[in-house]
Amino acid sequence: MSANWGNNIELSIFGESHGPAIGIVIGGLPAGMKLDMDEIRWFMKRRAPGQNQMSTPRKEKDEFQIVSGIRDGVTTGAPLCAMIENTNTHSKDYSELKVNMRPGHSDYPAYIKYHGYNDVRGGGHFSGRLTAPIVLAGSIARQILLEKGIIIGAHMKQIHHIQDCSFPVDIDDELLKQLSHQMYPTLDDQVFIKMQEEIEKARMSQDSVGGIIECAIAHVPAGIGNPFFDSVESHLSPLLFSIPAVKSVSFGSESIHQMYGHEANDAYYYQGDQVKTKTNHNGGITGGITNGMPIVFQVGIKPTPSISQIQETINVQTHTNTQIQVKGRHDPCIVPRAVVVVESMAALGVLDLLG
Ligand SMILES: Cc1cc2nc3c(=O)[nH]c(=O)nc-3n(C[C@H](O)[C@H](O)[C@H](O)COP(=O)(O)O)c2cc1C
Ligand SMILES: C=C(O[C@@H]1CC(C(=O)O)=C[C@@H](OP(=O)(O)O)[C@H]1O)C(=O)O
């Protein structure tokens, strides 16, 4: 298995959901950066499981230990290694899943690729739990980016059929800061209650729902990125697609393909010395290169695969068709906990792009 990424920074994640610990090694961080540990803890809390009925009941505090790369809270420039213990595993829930493959999860392809040696407990190395170290690394990246004036924020754009508004063209820094300090950010504050009801409805029917997260990265200067293979979209997408359960990534206005050219083209204008566009349907990127407007993208997340309804599947030991009823503790919807994961991946991607 390979779990490494990055050109200018280097990320390597490790661990399994039911192993002793999970963690990350980050190389290429600047030396002399004072880390705000309380802010890192806040972002970790936004993702942590077990906080209410919208989440898996598995309670994990997600306290972290930084074992290298900082001294007296300041980065030394050496690779930073951070670890998070797994403290609340119920591995018995997974005893049947070694042979009965969960539809929608990694079990069957992983069984084939790793000849049955892969750890299925809690999703093993495929687990959404591995996004905890990603949030940790992303929180550090955000602090470095903020020194350059770059601010990131995201909101729950859609849960099942319930929709929030889209980002306005002029995204206020205060709005992004406010979003990233909310546990479950939406632009329309009336919509969250409906989203919550939709998740609860799915949970009560032993089912799950998915949705869309929309993210904005403000103040990335114009001129970052390359044409073709290393366009900004090409650079951010692998990180976003590596979040478990992400099935789509799109940049700019979701409806751009339904527009006429005169609607899709973002008209330029000068505001003092600053070049801006009147609309931002291209999401701050044209020709693979940033144009100075906020980078805006949407990430589509599928419904959680592990649901407790009876489903059709196969038993790979007996080679028979069978049925499965998944036990254990699962998120009825991944979206609320994944907002900060998307923000974190965005931060890591932009930090790597800036070099
Ligand atoms: C934050 C987060 C939490 C998740 N929680 C669960 C869960 O409780 N149960 C589950 O079956 N999948 C959960 N997933 C999704 C699975 O890990 C994912 O669907 C699986 O690894 C298969 O990968 P794929 O959906 O990308 O194909 C979660 C993902 C994330 C990002
Ligand atoms: C623990 C987390 O989420 C887990 C992600 C997950 C999966 O299959 O992705 C399966 C569940 O694991 P378990 O059966 O051990 O409770 C979730 O609880 C977390 O995100 O921190």
Structure description:
Helix 1 crosses helix 8, helix 3 (131-147) crosses helix 8 (335-354) and helix 6 packs antiparallel against helix 8 (335-354). The chain is globular. It has a single domain, classed as Chorismate synthase AroC (Chorismate synthase, AroC fold, 4-Layer Sandwich), CATH 3.60.150. It contains 8 helices and 18 strands. The mean pLDDT is 97. The chain has 355 residues and is an alpha+beta fold. The protein has a 5-stranded antiparallel sheet, with helices on one face. The two termini are 26 Å apart. The structure holds flavin mononucleotide and the ligand C=C(O[C@@H]1CC(C(=O)O)=C[C@@H](OP(=O)(O)O)[C@H]1O)C(=O)O. The site of ligand EPS has 17 residues, from loops.
Could you outline the blueprint of secondary structure elements for this entry?
Blueprint: E1 4-5, E2 10-15, E3 21-27, H1 37-47, E4 64-68, E5 70-71, E6 74-75, E7 80-85, H2 107-113, H3 131-147, E8 151-159, E9 162-163, H4 173-180, H5 191-204, E10 211-218, H6 232-241, E11 246-251, H7 261-264, E12 268-271, E13 274-277, E14 285-286, E15 289-290, E16 295-301, E17 310-315, E18 320-325, H8 335-354
The site of flavin mononucleotide has 21 residues, from helix 8.
Would you summarize the structure shown here?
The protein is 26% helix and 24% strand. The protein is an alpha+beta fold. The chain has a single domain, classed as Chorismate synthase AroC (Chorismate synthase, AroC fold, 4-Layer Sandwich).
